[in-house]
Specification:
The structure is a homodimer. By secondary structure, chain A is an alpha/beta fold. Chain A folds into two domains: about 170 residues, Rossmann fold (3-Layer(aba) Sandwich); about 120 residues, Orthogonal Bundle (6-phosphogluconate dehydrogenase C-terminal fold). Chain A contains 13 helices and eight strands. In chain A, the strands form two sheets. In chain A, strands 3-2-1-4-5 form a five-stranded parallel β-sheet. In chain A, helix 6 links the parallel strand 7 and strand 8. In chain A, helix 4 runs parallel beside helix 5 and helix 7 crosses helix 11. Chains A, B: Its EC number is 1.3.1.12.
């Protein structure tokens, strides 16, 4: 039996449009309703036939939903929750895909009954944005973290978990605060650092931008991918998960200072010890199917 | 006409073995001699038929070469140069593939006539190491930077450039010091930061290593690839290009502090402005063929 029969997706960017495509592919009998705040995105969504119905307001999108998934930047969650509050059926579940869970839980429950709010975060994405960028297999083999509230009943949580399993994800449950700490290190800090180094390179005067681009295959290009991610989404993540990000950033800066000192003093042993430890993590990530086993991410060389 | 007829490759790891395979593929009439300091690697090279002859000493490898390419960690260049000095034919060119050029030029010319030394650096590689990891197309569409010495004649420089063009690379000339500055930002700093963040994540106690691995698709896994690179090679790079790396690291740290402050004070506009600038660089890298146009580096999603 399908966990939900009528799914509403609010926000039809990369993630929302990927959910729509995946629902179509893996649960074809589910009725999909979509909404996006942008008229241009709504028009694209209609042209792409992402949903059975694309509504012009968020309220109209939820009136007969049994699952509503909020796929908007985390800073927009409260406003959207407020917009749908009056039209949300009393037995519908509201979930989301936000990268921070404590702040999103607070934003949604400020306007909606906590028993109906089951936050979740599929750890998947690409550097691209918009309704054209989504694809049905985005969540396959990726983890989706469900962070239930104390007000949730078990059945609601299980229905959301089953929804994600149907889209091909593995599901893990976690407390919202712990989620925010884990993602601070596996996602938020890497994005902050990537944005920083790409900006640093862009600002140099001794090295031209043309040189940075030409010789980026030395390593730099790897950072430009995640630094090409959606700026609004990431602004909101850093504002919403401030404490955990600042904590991780502090640890990173201390570790970087230690390596800086080793370079300054020519301490080759300290550098070697640090560099020799990190291959094992890469190997585990590949072994557990969380990255491509092929060299160079499987990039084509031809 | 081929630029060289008898090529000797010293060091048969990822880069050396890729050169051997590429020479075999694109200049099949060239005679290839190989040597590696490791008996195990020499044996693997013989089994893989990477060269027409694999010698047990570096000196024996160069006796009838017209091009010798040093593919050893930059910290080993001086020792190898000293080993081959007595056996090097007076008309042979010695080149290399080191990631730092000023220090390598000094190391090689300490033992060999500067007129015969034409340093070069193909900006290409993967995170893998060893003679099995190489492949013939590694240099295709990548840049090779030749950094001539004042003692070089034009013909020698052009022969080395033509050698790399035959392997599929585009060739650019640069002064050694400028090369070291450019690569500090496009390669050395990214590697240092990747090694650091992977180490930081490994040291956390509130977040388990298993969680870091499971949820690495949020961005972290991108960093683990270059942090899986050869630790000896990279130790030597940071010791050899100290000043340029420390300069870039200082700029990066200042930029990171600025973003840290914006997060602490909740300055969303400053974050947005920074994050909105970086997509353009990614686009240029893709447009210029220096990375895959497909989302997510073209990683498979199935």
């Amino acid at each position: 039996m399908l966990p939900f029969a009528r799914v509403t997706i609010i926000g039809l960017g990369l993630i929302g449009s990927s959910i729509a495509r995946a629902v179509r592919e893996y649960m074809p009998s589910v009725r999909i309703t979509g909404h996006d705040v942008s008229a241009e995105v709504r028009e694209a969504a209609r042209a792409l036939k992402l949903a059975d119905d694309v509504t012009d307001t968020a309220g109209a999108a939820v009136t007969d939903a049994d699952l509503v998934i909020m796929c908007v930047p985390v800073g927009a969650m409260a406003a959207v929750a407020s917009e749908i509050a009056a039209d949300l059926p009393g037995d519908a579940i509201v979930s989301d895909v936000g990268s921070c869970k404590a702040s999103v839980a607070a934003a949604l429950t400020a306007h909606l009954p906590a028993s109906q709010v089951v936050p979740a975060h599929p750890v998947a994405g690409t550097e691209q944005s918009g309704p054209e960028a989504g694809f049905a297999t985005l969540f396959r083999g990726r983890w989706c973290i469900v962070t239930p509230l104390t007000e949730n009943d078990e059945v609601s949580v299980e229905r959301v978990a089953e929804f994600w399993r149907r889209l091909g994800a593995d599901v893990e449950q976690m407390a919202p605060d712990h989620h925010d700490l884990v993602l601070a290190v596996t996602s938020h800090l890497p994005h902050l650092i990537a944005y920083t180094i790409v900006g640093t390179a862009d600002d140099l005067q001794q090295v031209t931008q043309s040189e940075v681009i030409k010789f980026s295959a030395g390593g730099f290009r790897d950072f430009t991918r995640i630094a090409a991610s959606d700026p609004v989404m990431w602004r909101d993540v850093f504002l919403s998960n401030k404490d955990a990000v600042l904590d991780m950033l502090q640890r990173f800066s201390e570790d970087l200072s230690q390596l800086q000192r080793a370079i300054r003093w020519g301490d080759g042993d300290a550098l070697y010890d640090r560099f020799a430890r990190t291959r094992a993590i890469r190997r585990s990530i590949v072994d557990q199917g969380q990255d491509d086993a092929a060299a160079d991410f499987g990039r084509k060389h031809d």
